[in-house]
Write a structure and sequence with these properties.
Strands 1-3-2-4-5-6 form a 6-stranded mixed sheet, with helices on both faces. With 139 residues, it is an alpha/beta fold. The chain is globular. Helix 2 runs parallel beside helix 3. Helix 1 links the parallel strand 2 and strand 3. The chain has one domain: 3-Layer(aba) Sandwich (Rossmann fold), CATH 3.40.50.2300.
């Protein structure tokens, strides 16, 4: 299991107290996210749903989760369901980014629940705008 990685850049501004958790089994995607949010918001980066669930259960859980849907082990969809079972507010604090929107499993998940889904690759400003909107509502 790989330990959570935090951004090393100083954080300032209105959203500086926002704690983000990025979950993706693709390390290059996590590095892309790190570049996008560096200096904007505090963030952690994990590669498994299990690690993410442990962060959600922690004493200092993230405010928002950006998550891939299809991952080995605990999928993003299953992580979401577990989190919502603990606290229904998680249903509005997840943002999904997927490269597998045409997958039957992903399509069923998207259609089953009212979740925010973006398709890879996502434009950096579009991601930041959505994160700021969510942060304004929940943080």
């Amino acid at each position: 299991m790989r330990a959570a990685k935090r951004t090393g850049e100083p954080v300032s501004g209105r959203h500086s107290n926002v704690r983000l958790l990025f979950v993706d089994d693709d390390w290059s995607m996590l590095n892309t996210y790190r570049t996008i949010v560096s200096g904007q918001m505090e963030a952690e980066f994990v590669m498994t749903g299990e690690e993410a669930f442990n962060r959600i259960l922690s004493d200092a859980p993230p405010h928002l989760v950006v998550c891939d849907i299809l991952m080995p082990g605990l999928s993003g969809a299953d992580l979401y369901r577990r989190a919502v079972t603990l606290d229904s507010s998680w249903s509005r604090r997840f943002l999904f980014v997927t490269g597998a929107a045409s997958s039957r499993t992903v399509a069923e998940f998207i259609n089953e629940l009212d979740v925010r889904v973006f398709h890879k690759p996502i434009a950096p400003e579009r991601l930041l705008d959505m994160l700021r909107q969510l942060a304004d509502r929940w943080c």
